[in-house]
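Session log. Operator J.P. requested a structure for one protein chain; no other inputs attached. Running the standard single-chain path with C-alpha cell output.
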Amino acid sequence: MIKLIACDLDETLLNSDKKISEKNRIAIQRAKDEYGVLFVPATGRGYTCIDDVLDTLALRDQEDAYIISNNGGILCTAKDYQKLQFHALPFALACELFQFGYEANVCIQVFTDKDVYAFHLNEDEKKWLFMFKPDSIICEETSLAFLKDTPIAKILFQNTDMAYLQQIAKQMQPITKDKVSVSYSSNRYLELNAIGVDKGLGLRELAAHLGIAIEDTMAIGDNLNDYAMLKDAGVAVAVANAVAEIQAISDYVTKANCNEDAVAEAIQKFIFAS
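Structure written below.
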C-alpha cells in the first residue's frame, strides 16, 4: 500500500505555465485526507525557489510535510525549513566545477541552503530564474572564494542545447568521475551534486525517517534527475512527456502529460482505484 508519493515539479506536477492544476491539487489533497498518503515534492530547485508550490498545496500549514530539494542535496520540513539532511559538495570540488564552467563561459548557478548565485546569466535563463527566485544574486566574481564558509548544495550549468551540455559533461569527466553525481533536467540543465546524492537518496532517507518501507512509496517524474528516485521507489510512474530513458524504467506511463493533469491520473490509478 502506497504511503508516500515523491513527485518531481517541473514538467511533471507543474504545467507549462509553472502552475499546479486544480485537478492535481484536489487529487493530492484527497490522497492525504482520505488515504493518509504523504505527498512530497522532489525537486532540483532549492526550498526558497518553490514558494508557489508550498502555497498552492498549503504545505507550510502541515506538520508532516517534507521537501526533497536540490536533487536530494537537502531534505527538509516544509513548514519551517528544518534541515534533516544536507549533503553539500566539498568546497574544493565545487571550486573545480565552477572554474571549469566559468572558463567555458557557461551560465552557472550555485545553490546554497537559501540563496542562488548566478554567473554568466543569459536573458532567457534570467527570466526563468527570477520567476522562481526573485532575490537571486547575479555575480561578477571569478571564483567561489566568497562562499568558502557557506555549504554548497549543488551547481548547475544551463544551456538550451542538450548536446552541448552532454559534451560539457564528457569534458568534465576527469573532475567528476567518482566524485560528482551528474544528471539533467528540464532539457536545459546539467546538474552537479556530491557523489551519491540524488532524489533517490532523498526518498530513501525520508522513508527511513518516517518508518515507511521503500516498497510503500511511489515516485513520479519526467527527466534524468528523477532516474534514481524512480528506480528506488516501490512504484515508478513517468508522465507522458517524460524522456525515453525515464519511460523505459517506469512501471507505468501516464496517458496525460504535465499539461493534462498527469499526477492526478497516477494518483487515481495507484491510490484511489487500488
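Operator note: The mean pLDDT is 98.
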